[in-house]
Amino acid sequence: MVVSLFKCLYCGLQKTVKATPEQLHKPIKCPQCGCFNRLKSISKKTLDQPQGLPIHQKPSSALVAARFKCSQCHFEKVGHLKAGYGRPLQARCSQCQAAGTITVLRQQIVREIGLLDVPPGLAPRRAHDTPLLPVPASPRPSPRDVKTVVEPTDPEAFRYYKSLFRRYPSQPSEEIFAFFPYGRKQRETWLAPFQQLANIAKPESWNFQREEFRKKENDVPILINYLNFTFIRLLQQNKVHVFDDRACFNTGLQTAQEKDIYAVFSKNRKETAEEWYFNGWVDSYDLKLDAFRASLPTIASYAEDISDLFFDVSYDIDINIRHIVDDPKNRERLPVSIRDNAKLAMSAIQNEVRAFKDRCIRNYKLAVPCWYPAHSKVQLLLPVYIDKRTQADLALVADKDKPNKLYRIRTALTMDMAYSNARLITHPNQVWLNP
């Protein structure tokens, strides 16, 4: 038997246990939050530390998580301070100046998430002045208690996030919401967390079908794009929920049993890394969502007017063909057969636009709604057939101009770009959009 340290990455619980060498390689269940973590072998001399204190921390520098609650205005704030465990401490409320109580939550080292306004005369005793007493695991908050402390994300506070996860190696950590771990020893790649989501979600092809769009090193490019821009949209709509040092949001995907899938996070303990740490994908029955049970986050929404998702055949179509043909970015997206022949490209695209309205009257599904993240608006994708009548080669992007009853077209997308934008709203009907 060896002395081992159990440390929960989700709730922060730490305890020493005796285990066999074989058990060191097996995950064990956390008695406080129910998630699984691995044991870590430690030295026997660490058992001489005071009971109830984290093993790697000295008594004179112990930090504990604490909550301040005002008895008058019921203002609540969570922070950290040096104190003995289990002792209620008094402080004044920063809003109404009434007396309130500071309660120590649990024994763990916490990252700073807000300072408590403690007057100098009421400063708590340091940890080595007060005997440290073991504190039982804090009970799970009831839905009635959660209502007052679970708050949606403040868009102003999170406005600096530009992505859910690291998009390129040199991206600053301040721009990234969370770190997504993967097992290097198990020879996993950075794609492992997203492949796990693809496995538990309803069966769907998250890679492109055509060989020219497929990426050998990435088998879920559509899912990665979907998660990142869905998260950005949820921040805009204030739908990322935070409770103390935990956060979660609704991915918009479902399991095969039609249960919503949520992403859950905890505060990252590394000061120089991303602010949040990814804890896993869970369905609506998972225990990790207990703190958010009273107000589970909803899915992202895109269209305020449902009519924006369908093509109105009473509207005219105005196409800026010169911009599509002459603009370097648009010209690179054209099929090879017409890319270097501007006159042929203009003729082919204009003929397709003229015939589209007549085809759309017979099949309204031809116009596919998509989301344009840069301008946060809904657009419609119209197919263009150049080389084959059975396979679309290009997608024209139409913006709805309601005052003038027009659809304005001034850009084009390749099929993979069009599908990625359309998947943000819903799984598109693959009548023609099947890259």
Q: Strands, helices and their partners?
A:
Elements: E1 2-7, E2 14-19, E3 28-29, E4 36-37, E5 39-41, E6 64-70, E7 76-81, E8 89-92, E9 99-106, H1 143-146, E10 151-152, E11 178-179, H2 192-200, H3 221-236, E12 241-243, E13 246-254, E14 260-267, E15 276-283, E16 316-319, H4 321-326, H5 328-333, H6 336-339, H7 342-362, E17 368-372, E18 377-384, E19 394-401, E20 406-413, H8 415-423
Parallel strand pairs: 11-15, 16-20
Antiparallel strand pairs: 1-2, 1-5, 3-4, 6-7, 6-9, 8-9, 10-12, 12-13, 13-14, 14-15, 17-18, 18-19, 19-20
- Rg calculated over all Cα atoms: 28 Å
Strand content: 25-35%
The helix/strand class is alpha+beta
Number of helical regions: 8
Order of helices and strands: EEEEEEEEEHEEHHEEEEEHHHHEEEEH
Tell how many strands the DSSP assignment holds. 20
For the largest beta sheet, what order do the strands appear in spatially? 10-12-13-14-15-11
Poorly predicted regions: 43-62, 83-88, 106-153
- Between the first and last Cα atoms, what is the distance in angstroms? 57 Å
Mean pLDDT: 77
Share of residues in helices: 10-25%
* Main pleated-sheet profile: 6 strands, mixed
Q: Report the principal-axis shape.
A: elongated
Describe the structure.
The protein is α+β, with helices and mostly antiparallel strands and 435 residues long. It has helices at residues 143-146, 192-200, 221-236, 321-326, 328-333, 336-339, 342-362, 415-423; strands at 2-7, 14-19, 28-29, 36-37, 39-41, 64-70, 76-81, 89-92, 99-106, 151-152, 178-179, 241-243, 246-254, 260-267, 276-283, 316-319, 368-372, 377-384, 394-401, 406-413. The longest helix has 21 residues, at 342-362.
